[in-house]
Specification:
single chain, mainly alpha, Arc Repressor Mutant, subunit A, two-stranded antiparallel ribbon, 73% helix, WH-like_DNA-bd_sf, Transcriptional regulator, WH_DNA-bd_sf, HTH_MarR-typ
Length: 162
Amino acid sequence: MSTEPSGRNDLLAALEQAGRQYSESSVLFHHAIADSLGLNVTDLKCLDIIREKDGMTPGQLAKLTGLTTGAVTGVIDRLEGAGYAQRKRDSIDRRKISIHARPEQISSKLAPIFTSFQQAMANEFNTAYSNREMALILDFVKRSSHVLQAETNKIQQQKQQS
């Protein structure tokens, strides 16, 4: 008797289960990375956001993450204390600050971790998938990210309304 999914509903159920396992593995991987850097997972993910959108204000980070401004202050304090980010005052309005990643500090710690991960993934994908299949996987990941973002926004809006 085959354990492979046969129909559409079976495939959707198998995708849901595999997605949960992937999500759990991803969370644990990021927890291990954060721990190796002396951070928590929230700090690490905020650092990713700060790196991606260099020059954002604490208020923008709070809005984007759904964290309170007080929690964001704590995140920034920890990231700054560990040397991964820095506050910069606005040259015109000194009351305003923006948060910037410190790429030299980050790359020295994160590069070895992500280089290993990227090589392992490339090895796995190069032996298992054709270019066409990899394009399909890329489309799946992009679409899944859009769904996750939309569902995150929906949850945050529901919370604000209650």
